[in-house]
Amino acid sequence: xxxxxxxxxxRKIDQLIAHCDEISRENQGLKAELSEKARQITELEAKxxxxxxxxxxxxxxxxxxxxxxxxxxxAGGQEASSAQEEENTISFPQP
Length: 95
Description:
The chain has 95 residues and is mainly alpha-helical. The chain has a domain at 24-75. It is built from one helix and no strands. It has one helix at 3-88.
């Protein structure tokens, strides 16, 4: 082999090593980014779970309030109905 061929092989090997180092650094960066994204996903999943729990709690409270309103309207409606019947009744003086 001639000196030129050996020098060309050395340059190619140096380029290959540099390229491998670059890819390795890029890989490390991507791993760090992936790890951060996984952490963010876990955090968001916890927030979603918490919000769903809160939503169920609020929904239950609203249902109980509606039930109380319906009960009050039912009882109030009966009282109003009795009062209206008394107003609609015509009374005549007794002899």
